[in-house]
Amino acid sequence: MSLHPSLQSYADAWTHSVEAISELVTPLVEGEWNRATPCPGWSVRDVVSHVIGADCEMLGDPRPIHTLPRDLYHVQTESQRYQEVQVDVRRHHTAPEMVSELEYTIIRRSRQLRNESRDPGTMVRGPRAVEETLEFAMRRRAFDIWVHEQDLRWALGRPGNLDSPGAYVTRDLLLEALPKIVAKDAGAPANSAVVFDVHGPVEFLRTVRVDADGRGTIDGAPSLGPAATLALDWETYVRLSCGRVTPDAVTDRIKSEGDTALATAILAALRITP
């Protein structure tokens, strides 16, 4: 048996992004590993450490025994604390050590994926220390590693792959979150609609409709007279959704029409990452 067809796109997306990350960081000199990334509190080294650590956990490796320092201002939740262990334990690793461990982890994880024969619904322990289906874990992993590839690209001034396989996994995951963001988090009124018009390497036009009971749904049909319309480019949409920028920092890249207060509330609620 081989990888289930429903998992193949996630494996392909992971492979594309992790190989891009390896290509980005292998030639870096020591000082470049300390560059800040848009991921709050994390340097290039920290992002790569997280990538290594998450895939080691997907491989079933034991977690490091490590005590975090108390002055990590960006660590504020238990989830963040859990993830930070894999990062902090590598903060003093040299560039060659980082590249070597990354390459070894890629080899091991690629072999695991080639030999993966479990059903997508199999419960596994994911990289966030929770039991989840294999399909969800692989999907979330493809999303996570693509976003971190973009973190590294932004930090190193090497833009690219905004329309790679991981970008489309990310698009679908972000779209699934929109009904709740609009209807519940932003409090859009009943019987209203909000249109998202995203352009760039990945384009889509979606309408979130809120029914009389305040429940949100999403579809690709345009809305006549929406309560609000938000138009922005794909990169900005991703950075907002992943907490890499605040709405105030990118107002020049967002065009909104209709209910200004609702548009502001939606943008404030757009972030889905911890």
Automatic annotation (TrEMBL):
<dbReference type="InterPro" id="IPR017517">
    <property type="entry name" value="Maleyloyr_isom"/>
</dbReference>
<dbReference type="GO" id="GO:0016853">
    <property type="term" value="F:isomerase activity"/>
</dbReference>
<protein>
    <submittedName>
        <fullName>Maleylpyruvate isomerase family mycothiol-dependent enzyme</fullName>
    </submittedName>
</protein>
<dbReference type="Pfam" id="PF11716">
    <property type="entry name" value="MDMPI_N"/>
</dbReference>
<dbReference type="InterPro" id="IPR036527">
    <property type="entry name" value="SCP2_sterol-bd_dom_sf"/>
</dbReference>
<dbReference type="InterPro" id="IPR024344">
    <property type="entry name" value="MDMPI_metal-binding"/>
</dbReference>
<dbReference type="Pfam" id="PF07398">
    <property type="entry name" value="MDMPI_C"/>
</dbReference>
<feature type="domain" description="Mycothiol-dependent maleylpyruvate isomerase metal-binding">
    <location>
        <begin position="15"/>
        <end position="153"/>
    </location>
</feature>
<dbReference type="InterPro" id="IPR034660">
    <property type="entry name" value="DinB/YfiT-like"/>
</dbReference>
<feature type="domain" description="MDMPI C-terminal">
    <location>
        <begin position="170"/>
        <end position="263"/>
    </location>
</feature>
<keyword id="KW-0413">Isomerase</keyword>
<dbReference type="InterPro" id="IPR010872">
    <property type="entry name" value="MDMPI_C-term_domain"/>
</dbReference>
